[in-house]
Design a protein that fits this description.
Number of strands: 4
Strand content: 15-25%
Largest sheet: 4 strands, antiparallel
CATH architecture: 3-Layer(aba) Sandwich
CATH superfamily: NADH Oxidase
Structural class: alpha+beta
Number of domains: 1
CATH class: Alpha Beta
CATH topology: NADH Oxidase
Helix content: 25-40%
Shape: globular
Number of helices: 5
Radius of gyration: 17 Å
């Protein structure tokens, strides 16, 4: 869905600055990020492909999926690994820190949209098991990958949602 065009690192910094202003209970700020530029993305693809081949049961293995792992990320300008580090004192539940990280990612979504860029958060199995690849410490974990790129002009992605009236009860 991306052209492969390189986005200036200053824009990536703006995206990350906005992510940093996500709400966080007790100001634990559990998020941190590892940014891969186009020169490092092939290493992530190789890691993902190796992991997929090693850990995917034969009955679930797909050559098409393997090909996507090897090639699809290459069209992104940057891939941001979304990380979380638990509060050392565990003052709040884990789910609240995961929610804070998700809020940071929402800020990233809003920022890339405002910039006219494309972005999406994905949680491939290999990313969730990438501690060694990203050199994570204890109590740090990867919660997924946020792909950023210049969207192709001929793609028309229309969002759909179920009617909000079916999801709300007034008390």
């Amino acid at each position: 869905m991306y052209t492969g065009e390189q986005i200036d690192d200053d824009l990536i910094w703006q995206i990350l600055e906005n992510a940093n202003w996500a709400p966080t209970h007790k100001n634990t700020e559990p998020w941190f990020f590892k940014v891969l530029r186009q020169d490092k993305i092939p290493e992530l693809c190789a890691f993902g492909a190796e992991w997929y081949q090693k850990y995917t049961p034969t009955e679930k293995f797909s050559e098409m999926k393997l090909k996507k792992i090897k090639t699809k990320p290459l069209s992104a300008s940057h891939i941001i690994a979304v990380m979380m580090k638990r509060d050392a004192e565990k003052r709040i539940p884990k789910w609240e820190e995961e929610a804070a990280v998700a809020c940071a990612v929402q800020n990233m979504y809003l920022t890339v949209t405002a910039m006219g860029l494309g972005g999406y958060w994905s949680t491939p199995g290999y990313a969730l098991k990438s501690d060694d690849f990203f050199k994570l410490k204890k109590k740090e974990k990867c919660l997924g990958l946020f792909y950023i790129g210049v969207p192709k002009k001929d793609i028309d992605l229309k969002g759909t949602r179920w009617d909000i009236k079916d999801k709300v009860t007034w008390l």
